[in-house]
Amino acid sequence: MKTISALIAATVSLLAAGAAESAPLITNGSFETPTVPSGGFTTFSVGSSAITGYTVVGPANTAVAIVNGTFSQNGVSFPAQDGIQWLDLTGNGSNSTEGVSQSVATIAGDQYQLSYFVGNTTGGGVFGTTSTVNVSVNGAPTFSDTNSIASPTTLTWEPFTHTFVAAGPSTTLSFLNGDPGGDNSNGLENIVLTDLGPVGTPVPEPASLALFASALAGFGLIRRRRSRA
Q: 47-73 pLDDT, tens per residue?
C-alpha cells in the first residue's frame, strides 16, 4: 500500500508540474487587451507599451494596430483567429519593419516551442498578396514565415510552429513586419510559447499522466477493498 501511495503521489506531482509548464508563457498572446472600438482599430506608435505585455519596436514614426474582428474595408472582412482582436503589423499607413517585442522568463538549456498565426488577404487593392512575419530571438533574426493563401474577401489565417533552445533566464521575442511598403495588412495572432523541457528529455503527455494516475488510484481502491475483506 505504501508503494501504491508513493506512486500516486509521484504521479500527482508530475501532473502538477505538467500543468505549470503548460501555463501561458506569452502575455496577451491574442492581443485582447487593450480593448479597441468594435468594428475599428487603434494604432500604437513605436516605443509604446500600451499593448499589454509588449513594447512596440521599429523605425521612428512607425506604428502597429490592434484590429477588432468585425472591422471591414474595401470589401474585405478581417476576423480574428482567436478571441475578438488581432494585431496588424503594418499599422496605419506606416509600413516598415515595425513590430512588437516581449521578454519572457525561460530556463537556459530548455527547448521551447513557439507557435503563432499569420493573417493574409489578397483583396481590397491595398493589402498586398502575401503576409510575412519575421521573428527575432534576443535580437537575432531567427524565423521568417509567409502566408501566401489567396483570399480576396477575408483575412485568412495560417499557423506556423518553430522550436529554439533558451540561452538564459530571459528571452526576448520580437515579431516584425516583413511586407513591402505598399502592403497595408499583415496579421499576427494567437502567439503561444511552450517549455518542452531540457533538450533530449521526453515530456510525458498530460493525458497519459492523467490516465496513469487514474489507473493507480483505481488499483489502490481495489487493494483497500481486498484488505477490508
A: 999 999 999 999 999 999 999 999 999
Read off the pTM: 0.81
Q: Which residues of the chain have pLDDT under 70?
A: 1-23, 94, 202-229
For the chain, the structural domain boundaries read 24-205
Domain 24-205 has CATH 3.30.450.40: no
Written as one string, the DSSP assignment of the chain is: -HHHHHHHHHHHHHHHHHHHHHS--STTTT---S---TT-EEEEETT---STT-EEESSTT-EEEEEETT-EETTEE---SSTTEEEETTTTT--SS-EEEEEEE--TTEEEEEEEEEEE---TTTS-S-EEEEEEETTEEEEEEEE----SSB-EEEEEEEEEE--SSEEEEEEEE-S-TT----EEEEEEEEEEEETT-----HHHHHHHHHHHHHHHHHHHHHHH-
- The string of DSSP letters for 206-229 reads HHHHHHHHHHHHHHHHHHHHHHH-
- Give me the pLDDT at residue 7, please: 44
